[in-house]
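Sequence, please.
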Protein backbone atom coordinates (compact mmCIF):
# COMPACT_ATOMS: atom_id res chain seq x y z
CA UNK A 1 0.00 0.00 0.00
CA UNK A 2 1.00 3.60 -0.44
CA UNK A 3 0.14 6.55 1.76
CA UNK A 4 0.21 10.14 0.51
CA UNK A 5 1.26 12.38 3.37
CA UNK A 6 2.32 15.83 4.40
CA UNK A 7 4.73 15.25 7.33
CA UNK A 8 3.51 18.48 8.99
CA UNK A 9 -0.04 17.06 9.22
CA UNK A 10 -1.05 15.49 12.54
CA UNK A 11 -3.59 13.19 10.81
CA UNK A 12 -0.80 11.90 8.54
CA UNK A 13 1.54 11.29 11.47
CA UNK A 14 -1.24 9.45 13.34
CA UNK A 15 -1.93 7.27 10.29
CA UNK A 16 1.77 6.40 9.93
CA UNK A 17 1.97 5.55 13.65
CA UNK A 18 -1.00 3.22 13.37
CA UNK A 19 0.37 1.55 10.23
CA UNK A 20 3.69 1.04 12.03
CA UNK A 21 1.97 -0.32 15.15
CA UNK A 22 0.11 -2.82 12.97
CA UNK A 23 3.29 -3.86 11.17
CA UNK A 24 1.88 -2.79 7.79
CA UNK A 25 4.04 -2.87 4.68
CA UNK A 26 3.65 0.51 2.99
CA UNK A 27 5.40 3.17 0.96
CA UNK A 28 5.30 6.84 1.91
CA UNK A 29 4.72 9.45 -0.77
CA UNK A 30 5.34 13.01 0.35
CA UNK A 31 2.96 14.41 -2.22
CA UNK A 32 4.03 18.03 -1.73
CA UNK A 33 7.53 17.04 -2.91
CA UNK A 34 6.62 14.15 -5.24
CA UNK A 35 3.60 15.88 -6.78
CA UNK A 36 1.06 13.56 -8.41
CA UNK A 37 0.27 14.17 -12.05
CA UNK A 38 -3.24 14.88 -13.26
CA UNK A 39 -3.44 11.27 -14.47
CA UNK A 40 -2.36 9.95 -11.06
CA UNK A 41 -5.00 12.13 -9.39
CA UNK A 42 -7.64 10.79 -11.81
CA UNK A 43 -6.58 7.22 -10.98
CA UNK A 44 -6.75 7.83 -7.23
CA UNK A 45 -10.15 9.50 -7.61
CA UNK A 46 -11.36 6.39 -9.42
CA UNK A 47 -10.07 4.20 -6.61
CA UNK A 48 -11.65 6.50 -4.01
CA UNK A 49 -14.89 6.65 -5.98
CA UNK A 50 -14.89 10.41 -5.35
CA UNK A 51 -14.82 13.60 -7.38
CA UNK A 52 -11.92 16.07 -7.22
CA UNK A 53 -13.92 18.61 -5.22
CA UNK A 54 -14.54 15.87 -2.62
CA UNK A 55 -10.80 15.71 -1.81
CA UNK A 56 -10.04 19.42 -2.08
CA UNK A 57 -9.00 21.39 0.98
CA UNK A 58 -11.12 24.45 0.24
CA UNK A 59 -9.90 26.47 3.22
CA UNK A 60 -6.28 26.59 2.03
CA UNK A 61 -4.99 29.99 0.85
CA UNK A 62 -4.50 28.64 -2.70
CA UNK A 63 -8.15 27.58 -2.81
CA UNK A 64 -9.24 31.06 -1.85
CA UNK A 65 -6.86 32.65 -4.39
CA UNK A 66 -8.29 30.40 -7.13
CA UNK A 67 -11.87 31.11 -6.05
CA UNK A 68 -12.65 27.37 -5.79
CA UNK A 69 -15.80 27.92 -3.78
CA UNK A 70 -17.34 29.46 -6.91
CA UNK A 71 -16.24 26.74 -9.33
CA UNK A 72 -18.95 24.44 -10.67
CA UNK A 73 -18.96 20.92 -9.30
CA UNK A 74 -19.95 18.98 -12.36
CA UNK A 75 -18.46 16.77 -15.08
CA UNK A 76 -17.64 19.78 -17.24
CA UNK A 77 -15.45 21.28 -14.51
CA UNK A 78 -13.81 18.01 -13.42
CA UNK A 79 -10.59 18.49 -15.43
CA UNK A 80 -10.26 22.05 -14.16
CA UNK A 81 -10.43 20.79 -10.56
CA UNK A 82 -7.93 18.00 -11.26
CA UNK A 83 -5.58 20.53 -12.87
CA UNK A 84 -5.80 22.73 -9.78
CA UNK A 85 -4.94 19.76 -7.52
CA UNK A 86 -1.96 18.84 -9.70
CA UNK A 87 -0.73 22.43 -9.77
CA UNK A 88 -1.40 23.07 -6.06
CA UNK A 89 -0.90 19.73 -4.26
CA UNK A 90 -1.43 21.39 -0.88
CA UNK A 91 -5.11 21.38 -1.83
CA UNK A 92 -5.26 17.56 -1.77
CA UNK A 93 -6.93 16.13 1.32
CA UNK A 94 -4.61 13.95 3.36
CA UNK A 95 -3.64 11.30 4.12
CA UNK A 96 -4.75 9.11 1.22
CA UNK A 97 -4.02 5.40 1.39
CA UNK A 98 -4.08 3.32 -1.77
CA UNK A 99 -4.50 -0.31 -0.77
CA UNK A 100 -3.14 -3.39 -2.49
CA UNK A 101 -6.56 -4.53 -3.69
CA UNK A 102 -7.09 -1.39 -5.79
CA UNK A 103 -9.19 0.54 -3.29
CA UNK A 104 -8.23 3.84 -1.68
CA UNK A 105 -9.37 5.80 1.34
CA UNK A 106 -8.97 9.28 2.72
CA UNK A 107 -7.57 8.09 6.05
CA UNK A 108 -8.26 10.98 8.41
CA UNK A 109 -9.50 8.72 11.21
CA UNK A 110 -8.18 5.61 12.94
CA UNK A 111 -11.20 3.72 11.58
CA UNK A 112 -10.32 4.65 7.99
CA UNK A 113 -6.69 3.52 8.46
CA UNK A 114 -7.92 0.22 9.90
CA UNK A 115 -10.30 -0.12 6.95
CA UNK A 116 -7.36 0.33 4.56
CA UNK A 117 -5.49 -2.41 6.42
CA UNK A 118 -8.34 -4.83 5.69
CA UNK A 119 -7.78 -4.22 1.97
CA UNK A 120 -4.14 -5.28 2.07
CA UNK A 121 -3.08 -8.58 0.54
CA UNK A 122 -1.00 -10.85 2.71
Amino acid sequence: MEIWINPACSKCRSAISLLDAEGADYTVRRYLEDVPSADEIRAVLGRLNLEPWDITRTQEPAAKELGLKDWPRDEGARDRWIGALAEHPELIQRPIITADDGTALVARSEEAVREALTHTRD
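The chain has a mean pLDDT of 96.
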